[in-house]
Amino acid sequence: MSTSPRNNSDEPVVTSYALAPTRTITTDGVTYAYRELGPKGDIPVIFFVHLAATLDNWDPRIVDGIAQNRHVIAFDNRGVGASTGEVPDSVEAMADDAYTFITALGFETVDVFAFSLGGMVAQDLVIKHSQLVRKLILTGTGPRGGKDIDKIMGVTYWDILRATLTRSDPKEFLFFNRNTTGRKAGKQFVARLKERTVDRDQDMALRGFRTQLKAIVKYGRSTPSDLTLITQPTLIANGDNDRMVPSVLSEDLHQRIAGSELVIYPDSGHGGIFQYHDEFAPLAAEFLGK
């Protein structure tokens, strides 16, 4: 555990996600599980996670890179992992729950780091509560009504089948290319997710996973949002071969969010930011620190 920097108390600041304690807060009848690390006192960075993911699905290399200098909070939304309640059946409702969680913690301004489904939730949050978010990072995601987002169900189930037949983690297929580079990056990513050995989160329930998938399909078939309403500094990143949320949709976001920055990593898929974590983590930290 790092002992620097410190808060205003004598307690050392945790800057390793593998060691961050799991906490809970109850509001509106729902108990949300979350982990926080990094120095407090500044605007926090709230992490919005992907489909079927819990607190244990964040790449520690990215979280730790940002938590060196920023207060980071990752959370399980309603019905996910150790959080109570039912998984919402729409992205809009997920965004409402995220707002409830953030405001329950007492924050009036936050930065948001979002991946995949989390990026969809983040867009809805920003559009509805623009004053809450100062800066926005959208990775591996796309806009409401984006072309082929509604095909995610077929891609997901196919890759889960392929992973089952090869006794692999589905994320190795869903997030990474099936070439030498991608296979290596996938196995390294999955290994990093296991670095936390105590107080691990509950797995995503199958019913909740299916509900999330249906919500993404609905999002993909919905009327596009007015992204001109997103005026926050925005960093967009993806791999050049995203099969879950097509990479072209990152370019679409970039074109529609004025002043946004776009980074596309070569020879990588949905998990491009994880494959290139050694480049992306410092880039994200610099963007958030501006």
Automatic annotation (TrEMBL):
Gene3D superfamilies linked: alpha/beta hydrolase
Pfam families in alphabetical order: Abhydrolase_1
SUPFAM superfamilies named in the record: alpha/beta-Hydrolases
Protein name from the UniProt record: Alpha/beta hydrolase
GO molecular function, one term: hydrolase activity
Annotated source species: Nocardioides endophyticus
Keyword Endoplasmic reticulum: no
Assigned keywords, A-Z: Hydrolase
Residues annotated as domain AB hydrolase-1: 45-274
PANTHER family: AB HYDROLASE-1 DOMAIN-CONTAINING PROTEIN, HYDROLASE, ALPHA/BETA FOLD FAMILY PROTEIN
